[in-house]
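Note to self: keep these together.
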Amino acid sequence: MLTRRNILQQAGKTAVVLATTAPWWLVRRAHAARPHKLIVWNTAALAPQVDKIMQEQCYAYAKQAGIKESEIDYSIIGSAQITPKLAASLEAGSPPDVARLDAWLATLYRSQGHMLEVTDIVDKMQRGPGGLFPIFSEVVHEGKSYVIPQSVSPSPLVARMDLLEAAKVGPPKTWDEFIEVCKKLQQPPKLTGYGICLGLTGDTNGNVMSIVWSYGGKMVEADNKTVVLNSPGTIKGVQVIADMYLKHKIIPKGAISWDNTGNNKAYQSKQVIFVQNATSIYAHLADSDKDLYNSTGLLPMPAGPAGAFATLNATYWGLFRHNPYPELAKGLIDYWMAPENLRVMIEEGDGRWGPPYKGMYDSDFWKRPVFAHWRGMLENGRHIASPGTAHPAVGEVAHTYVLGRMMHRVLVENWEAEKAVEEAHNKIVEIYARHQSA
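Structure:
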């Protein structure tokens, strides 16, 4: 298996003869000075070793492609800052050349005409190991691709297995069991049961919808037109969360002001027993707290009357249309997403993300017991608008935090769940109506 050391060593070598299979960006390497830098914005992975590997690979690509380090402006940007920073850059007409985007921003920016077509790269990836997961077809528009799959990851229930085992308690299978386990094991204020994200932030969307789905609610139908948030299932799910916070007191009071790092920090500092999150928490612990790393489980979400559901997160590379060097930007993505390079980042990064290729889960790394439920969640996970698809309207719903504001109406302003759900429903109807021509 290639390692980071192998890749960096290879980057420093000069190829005397290029094989016919050499990447096109290496064959066409250009040494002429460039008046503009290649600007890359990468959202922080919340696992430092992953940030480091991706940056190393970026500069390894530059060395092979004949790009000077001074000709690249590479930035790692916090998850809370990336969306407003991108919005400001687009308004000013100076977005980055390359940025890592969630599905909602990717689709929204495509509908606004900001993205470069990259069908050639995505078609090549479809021929990679096992092809791409079906979720990535959702961002194809009229047969063309405008963003490039980077990763796919479920958000399991991250659990303190050491505490469960010490109390001789099994993983909770239902939300009722979950509440009772939290009440039994928590020791507030030092240790609280559930670190659910309830701030005006991205993680709140998936955390809330996982519970809403389990009680039969959903945001929109598969036609991407019919908004159905206002339903008994959604109201019940919202009330269950409210009861967790206000009645059972198994959620930290500060959760209503968390950003996307809040639940990570709470779990990593041993202040909560459970969180729902992608595996950034687990990957970060590999270097920061080996004992907690070995005591952490990645479990299926508890079930409600309608079933158990984990959110499924797809992430993309976007190339903005203003890019003065589209071939160099495409080359960087081609390099990052080459299976041998991607495997280094994924596996040496302790599974921060899952690879987008279906055939890359056959290694010993993915056979470790901690990932026992991973593949099932990949197959059955949902994104926040399921059964709707990655429609541009979802980008606005997600990034204006409609669901977080709905929860704040109940938890902060003491609204009834019915009234808060109705208001959020009407807002989403308005957003979808505005995006129907996209």
